[in-house]
Design goal:
- It is globular and about 50 Å long.
- Helix 5 packs antiparallel against helix 6 and helix 8 runs antiparallel to helix 9.
- The protein has an eight-stranded mixed β-sheet with strand order 3-2-1-4-8-7-5-6, with helices on both faces.
- The protein has one domain.
- By secondary structure, it is an alpha/beta fold.
């Protein structure tokens, strides 16, 4: 489905993970849809299949697009992570966000603990953000993934070819994440609720013992900012 991927990737501004069975998630989706109507947001194949009837009116760019695996090797990586113990929903979110060069957006609490365990770092906020601040910092999350991407993919290629380099590469990536956090100075504080998790997909693959395989996997092993949208947003 590479042609479908190519048609979507340029205008995508985020890959969303949600559970519509969770109270307040639909409110937050409506909030996103109303205030970010010009952003194309992607949903992973598992989420589309699970909630296709309830999401029918929101697909086709209003505001969601159904994402596809561009090549079979990326789908294989998700399957290996799932087999190693990572929930498929989380694996798809992270791998497709990297493959589509987009930030991830987590709506609601259902998968937050899973993502929190994987986070290399976190940006916290101590107050409610207004719509202008949400829009600005979602745009900054776009810059985060774009600015990390080329170097991160090059590093992933090196790690796949020479696994002995992984630990050093992961330390270097942690340092870049720490520097990138400064972008969020307008809203960040030491204590508060999470606004954004940094997840290093190379670190995830290494931790789950799947850092082997095809060179195409490198595209899926970037550093992903995951913006957290609480349930019940109105």
């Amino acid at each position: 489905m590479f042609s479908r991927y190519a048609a979507i990737v340029k205008n995508l501004r985020g890959v969303v993970l949600l559970d519509l069975r969770e109270e307040g998630v639909l409110d937050s989706i409506k909030w996103l849809s109303k205030r970010f109507r010009y952003r194309n947001l992607g949903l992973t194949p598992t989420i589309v299949e699970r909630f296709k009837e309830r999401l029918a009116d929101m697909l086709n760019g209003k505001p969601f697009r159904a994402l596809v695996y561009p090549v079979k090797s990326i789908e294989k990586l998700v399957a290996e992570l799932e087999e190693a113990g990572l929930p498929r929903e989380v694996a798809e979110l992270l791998i497709l966000a990297s493959t589509y060069i987009s930030p991830a957006i987590l709506v609601g609490e259902s998968y937050r603990k899973n993502l929190e365990k994987l986070a290399a770092d976190v940006v916290k906020v101590c107050r409610e953000l207004n719509v202008r601040e949400w829009k600005l910092h979602l745009r900054i999350a776009d810059y985060t993934v774009l600015d990390f991407y080329e170097e991160a993919v090059d590093e992933a290629l090196r790690a796949l070819e020479e696994p002995s380099l992984v630990e050093r590469l992961l330390e270097e990536r942690k340092e870049r994440i720490s520097t990138d956090k400064r972008r969020y100075w307008r809203i960040s504080c030491e204590d508060g609720r999470p606004f954004l998790y940094y997840i290093d997909n190379l670190s995830v693959a290494h931790a789950y013992g799947v850092l082997r395989g095809e060179r195409d996997w490198a595209a899926a092993l970037a550093i992903i900012p995951v913006v957290y949208v609480p349930p019940g947003m109105k």
